Amino acid sequence: MLRSELCIGCAACANACPFDAIGIVDNNKRVIHFSPEKCSNCSFECNDVCPTRAIERRPDKITLEFEYAFCLECGRRLMRTKKEAEYYAQQLLKMGEKVEFAFICDECKMKKISSVSDKYSGYLI
Predict the structure, then answer these.
(1) 22: in domain
(2) Fewer CB in a 10 Å sphere around the end CB: N or C, the chain?
(3) Residues 16 and 57 in one domain
(4) What's residue 29's pLDDT?
């Protein structure tokens, strides 16, 4: 069973599936195809890796589309979907971290971190 409302489009399930029963197409959107007819005697690896527990046992035959998130700093397309970024933002919030990091590319994160560290370099002994 697949609870599509819980799926964030992270593609962890597709990477874990040993039978290619879950396909990913990356264009202007991330498209995930669930093809349970390709499932065989597996250990439900897709269930184990799903961060939101959207998949329970064998997934339904369905195609889901997800829009990508874009960096708040430079505007580049992120390699995560909007729903995925929102999920990670919630996780960061729970940990007391900066939620905007879920919506910033790695390059811009490094620039932010280095600009903060440059301000404190004078304090090093």
Answers:
(1) yes
(2) C
(3) yes
(4) 95
CA distance 16 to 24: 12
Domain that holds residue 108: 70-120
Residue whose structure tokens are 């700093």: 73
Residues 56 and 79 in one domain: no
pLDDT given at position 40: 83
pTM of the model: 0.82
In this prediction, residue 122 carries a pLDDT of 54
Give the angle 2-14-32 at the CA atoms, nearest 5°.
65
Cα separation of 96 and 37, whole Å? 43
> Given strand 77-81, what is the order of strands in its sheet?
22-26, 29-34, 62-70, 77-81
Burial track 36-68 (b if 16+ CB lie within 10 A, e otherwise): eeebeeeebbbbebbeeebbeebbeeeebebeb
